[in-house]
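The instructor's notes for this session suggest beginning with a concrete chain rather than abstract definitions. Hand out the sequence below and ask the class to guess, before any prediction is shown, which regions might be ordered.
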Amino acid sequence: MSTPRVVSVHDWQRALDVLRVKEKAATRARDALAAERRRLPMVRIERQYTFEGPHGEQKALADLFDGRRQLLLYHFMFGPSQDAGCPGCSMFIDQIGPPQHLNARDASFVIVSRAPIAKIERYRQRMGWTLPWYSSFGTTFSRDFGLGLTEPDPTKMQDGEDFGLSVFLHDGGEAYRTYFTNRRGVEGLNVWTLLDLLPFGRQETWEDSPPGCPQTPPYGWWRRHDEYGR
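After discussion, reveal the predicted structure:
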């Protein structure tokens, strides 16, 4: 293995300072992209979909918002013929922490797969996850959103299904799709970058957001995940 050269603390700091300029430029460019994302046009969801919950309850798409205006929906690769979820999707969900931080900014996070709910529940319990996970089994939801193939391709997809993250807004009794990402657009997501994908963003006063977006001073809304609502 070829390792970087060894230098003095002074030379290391000087090289780090040069790199930091590029890092800050990348951060500003990411902020500008987030501002542009908040101004993307959106698509009204015309079709009615039904999702099955862990206790057999039937949910409409509007129900998945759980009373909030924004929704992050992860399309998890887990098809009807599979007995376990996709390893890559599982690695991603392992990194999603308590949803209370997202909830505090008027956003819900749910998982949806085509596998029957009984398989989903067995796997969810195996993984120790508590995030809401619903089945779209028997519906065209995945295919309609560009994530389900008519015929499975085992060289590319698991059980004919792809993965990705859709963002929705609930407004005036209607649901709208505002954003979508997949592939490497998913791998860097965390609570901050997930907020950046939402129509309202982080809702902090420093952000460049459309007029009327809710905003509060930065840092002031932060809480430990068991302190929200006190």
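Then share the key points. The beta strands are 43-44, 50-52, 58-60, 70-75, 107-113, 133-135, 164-171, 174-181. The first helix runs from residue 9 to 37.
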